[in-house]
Amino acid sequence: MFDNEQLIAAFQTFLRYGFKKTSMEDLARAMGVSRQALYKRYGSKEAILDLVTRSLVEASGDAALAALAAPETPLGDRLYQCLDQWTGQHVDPMRSSPHSGEVLAMTDHSPQSAIKQLEARLRTQIEACLQREAPHLNAADVTYSLFIASYGLLYKAEDHAEYESGMRRVLSAFGLDQAHLAH
Prior knowledge:
The chain is mostly helical and 183 residues long.
């Protein structure tokens, strides 16, 4: 198995050259392994992209859940940090490549079940936090709105700073920027 640095290097290689133009040699060089080892273990670029996508999604999901579970942090900040780990952190890498659209399109056919399962878990946890700490809000509607805003900003924000500004505005619109919400 590959470590996180190798997986990130592989993802950056896909972003640098695009999926179609990335060779197994490019991936092997970036990951510090032999081309033969990649072929033997995974067999194709598609399988490597699936592995990379699944691993990065799982890491993002774990970090998002950890951010949400920090009880000493105000709810609005936890919600922002959670969604930033899930989507926001990917804005700058996606903007750094003219091939990001192609790579995203390929990941749309990748391990969708892993992405959907983690997203469902995040939505459930966010709704539970909102029901507990902001009972005056419709938790399901707010959660839906936060995810729509986060995904929209992932595709539209020019950089991470614009993503953060946009998400902070959305949180503020729901009154979730206040530290003194009900417990």
